[in-house]
Specification:
The chain is 67% helix and 9% strand. The protein has 520 residues and is an alpha+beta fold. A four-stranded antiparallel sheet has the order 4-5-3-8. Helix 1 (25-60) runs antiparallel to helix 13, helix 4 (127-142) runs antiparallel to helix 5 and helix 8 (219-243) packs parallel to helix 12 (387-423). The radius of gyration is 49 Å and the shape is elongated. It starts with a strand and ends with a helix.
Length: 520
């Protein structure tokens, strides 16, 4: 098989002529093989130096610490909190969250402001929102003039992020990377506690119900105090029961919300009613005049509340009667226009508001009748207090207070279990926690060294090819010159030999002529 060559044209400016150099591939490969070891050693050395430098700067420089969190509950896609208020992602770096994290990590509380300034939170665009925007854009571009209004309405979309990237630039805080990772993870845990406290069981409810001391009030007032507390607790449990569609039974308490509601009603209907009737029959009071004034005030206040409740109910009823449901009209070329009435969210809200207003009005009327009866009984009854009856009332009230506190604790544990494991079980998740370990550091250092390593190795490889090609060219040119010089020497010897031949012949002729001359 014929050897393949590479032709190189060399221009010599002084002689104004071109010289064609022929380089064989075998010569180039021979030079590549000759300098391969040198190239390999240089490539390994340069790659090692770049990787070492990248690892050094990765471990010694204050690269930001990052984490990713997500929210998954009804309403977050509209930018709402679980309670319906506007969601604010800056709460993730709220002062109370940072303060709690600093306290857990045993760091200086004065770092609060540097840490807060070093926090950056960025929302990620949901995939479904991206697809909707692309789809609506295509509809808008392909719509005719008659459909332009509908297309414009479709383009009026908004999206709210459900995932957030958290970046902690801890240079200003003057802490190590390890401390920054620890602090950021502590902040994520602190926000979890804040989230469940804020949107799960309302701890302020339990505190307000148990904070008041019933002994500071008259006996009848203490009964009303307990009744109001149980009423608030009952409303809270009822709201949880309406929200729960799984008939949740707490593993912490063993109760369902229906069980708790039954227990609360038993305290209201049995214990408190029994104490209230005993007080009314025996006219037991610490101060009869003061208690009479209290009843009169309650009746007057409730009558004003009744007027307000009635006006609210009338306004809701008027709005309900005048409200028209939304209608959808479908246009078609083949059939007649079709008009369909669909359910409306606002209409459903009006129904719920009307039911609530009616319940409030009924409850206010019942309370007015109850206090009027109490006031009438108090005015007629003149039985004096006895120590036995007072002692019995105080013991009964103490039992009710104990039951109320136990009920508050049961509701708190059950609701907390429900929110954390059912309602808000997946509402807040840390998808990527902050991390600092050897594998992460090495991986980050290698990723930063890839681009410079590839660039440096490519330049070294190109230099290696260039050197091998140039050396092969020099070798071929040198061999060509040597051949040319040898050929030139051979061409220079041929005229000399020709000139000498006649001389030798003449010498022979002369030698041959001598005998003839001598013979003569």
């Amino acid at each position: 098989m014929a050897e393949q060559n590479v032709n190189v044209i060399l221009k010599q400016e002084e002689k104004r002529e071109e010289e064609i150099a022929v380089i064989s591939f075998s010569t180039i490969f021979r030079k590549l093989k000759k300098y391969f070891a040198v190239w390999l050693m240089v490539a390994i050395l340069v790659g090692g130096l770049i990787a070492s430098a990248s690892m050094f700067f990765t471990t010694t420089s204050s690269n930001p610490v990052r984490a990713v969190v997500s929210f998954n509950y009804k309403g977050i896609e509209k930018g709402k909190n679980p309670d319906g208020t506007d969601f604010d992602w800056n709460t993730l770096k709220a002062p109370r969250i940072i303060s709690k994290a600093l306290e857990e990590c045993g760091m200086n509380p004065e770092l609060l402001e540097p840490v807060r300034q070093g926090m950056e939170i960025e929302g990620k665009m949901p995939e479904d929102a991206y697809q909707r925007l692309n789809t609506y854009q295509n509809v808008y571009e392909n719509s005719s003039s008659g459909q332009l209004a509908a297309a414009n309405a479709m383009l009026d979309v908004s999206w709210f992020s459900t995932q957030y990237n958290i970046t902690f630039k801890y240079r200003e805080a003057a802490i190590t990377r390890t401390e920054a990772v620890q602090l950021l993870n502590a902040m994520l845990d602190a926000y979890r506690s804040y989230f469940y406290e804020e949107f799960g069981y309302n701890e302020a409810l339990g505190v307000s119900l148990s904070a008041q001391n019933y002994k500071d009030y008259d006996y009848a007032e203490a009964v009303d105090l307990f009744r109001d507390s149980l009423k608030q607790l009952n409303h809270y449990v009822t709201s949880l029961a309406n929200e729960d569609s799984t008939r949740f039974r707490s593993s912490a308490t063993g109760y369902t919300f229906a069980d708790l509601k039954t227990a609360i009603n038993s305290i209201q209907n049995l214990d408190l009613d029994l104490i209230s009737s005993y007080l009314s029959v025996n006219n037991i009071t610490k101060d009869k005049v003061r208690l009479q004034a209290y009843y009169e005030y309650r009746i007057e206040n409730l009558e004003r509340q009744q007027i307000t409740d009635q006006e609210t109910l009338d306004a809701i009823q008027d709005a309900f009667d005048a409200y028209e449901k939304d209608q959808v009209i479908i246009f078609s070329d083949s059939v007649g226009n079709t008009e369909t009435t669909v359910s409306s969210e606002e209409y459903d809200k009006l129904i719920n508001r009307r039911i609530t207003a009616q319940e409030n009005l009924s409850e206010t009327k019942q309370s007015i009748a109850f206090y009027k009866q109490r006031l009438q009984t108090l005015k007629k009854n003149t039985i004096a207090n006895s120590e036995d009856k007072v002692e019995r009332i105080e013991k009964d009230l103490e039992k009710v207070n104990k039951k109320l506190n136990e009920m508050i604790e049961l509701v708190e544990k059950t609701a907390d279990d429900y929110y954390q494991n059912v309602s808000l079980g997946n509402a807040y998740n840390v998808l990527v926690p902050a991390a600092y370990d050897a594998a992460t550091t090495v991986k980050h250092g290698i990723s930063k060294a890839v681009v410079p390593c590839v660039g440096a190795e490519a330049m070294i490889f190109i230099f290696y090819l260039g050197v091998s090609f140039v050396m092969a060219l020099i070798e071929e040119m040198k061999a060509k010159r040597m051949k040319m010089e040898a050929a030139a020497e051979t061409d220079g010897d041929e005229p000399k030999n020709v000139a000498e031949e006649p001389t030798a012949k003449n010498t022979a002729d002369k030698t041959a002529d001598k005998p003839e001359k001598n013979k003569k």
